[in-house]
Amino acid sequence: MKEKQSIIKFLILAVILAVALTAGFATGAMKTAALTADWTLSLRAILRLAAMAAGVLLAEWVAEFFLTLCKPRTHRARSILSITRSLLRYAAAIVILCWGLHLLGVNILAIVASLGVLALIVGFAADSIIADLVTGVFILFDSQYNVGDIIEVDGFRGVVTDIGIRTTSITDASENIKIVNNADMRNILNRSDHVSKSFCDISIPYTCDLEALEEKFPSLLEEIRQKRADVMLDTPVYLGVQQLADSAVVLRFCVDVKEKDIYGGARILNRDLLLGLRQLGVECPFPQLDVHSM
Hints:
This protein has helices spanning 2-27, 43-69, 75-103, 108-114, 116-125, 127-142, 210-227, 262-279; strands at residues 150-153, 156-163, 167-171, 177-181, 189-190, 196-204, 237-244, 249-257. With 294 residues, the protein is α+β, with helices and mostly antiparallel strands.
């Protein structure tokens, strides 16, 4: 889908550029080096502006296209590519704005000098934007997190899918996207740095011979590990009795997994332990109500 959209975008820009250049040279709009202040928004001015904007956007698209051809192997490299694409978009917008004003005969340097005080006021008003930009630079150089890392921010857990100059995009397991300003990326829990653990609590009846059952756990857990080596990084571990519940003894197990498999690993461990205990003749109990009539 994204490839089709990119191709359509390229074709549209190429057509606009070709039409603007053709019409511009045919009408003589491209012969003058630059427009003067006496120019009004005529057809010639529109053609020059359209050709310039289409050319800049086309160049930006080509640069992004070559960046997409890179297949980074590390999360760090993916982060650099992500923030580079963000820089390209901002740079293209600034170039179009400044070049467009220049084509209309506006003296950019004079405007910048005369609006120095106004720029200072706007800078103070836009302190949050500046904070986002500065924080984005520190995030890149400090490598606090990278594209592809699984992080948790304010209770929202997901994969970092994009790091921009101002914002970071995080996608959770339900494909919900949370966009956070870089200045608000505080108290981050990067869950990709270490091996994670999936836990399973499973119940057995009080009538079961616990000691005899515990002797069978090593072979059962090793069998589960061999079948689920694609998810489990090591053999599941029996941790012991977790709880003495009303109608059952609750046993706890855990297994090392990658952070992205933490929930899937728990579901697999639940299923395989249930089936394994049934093969050993142990059925998981369920709450029962005894009714006594007088």
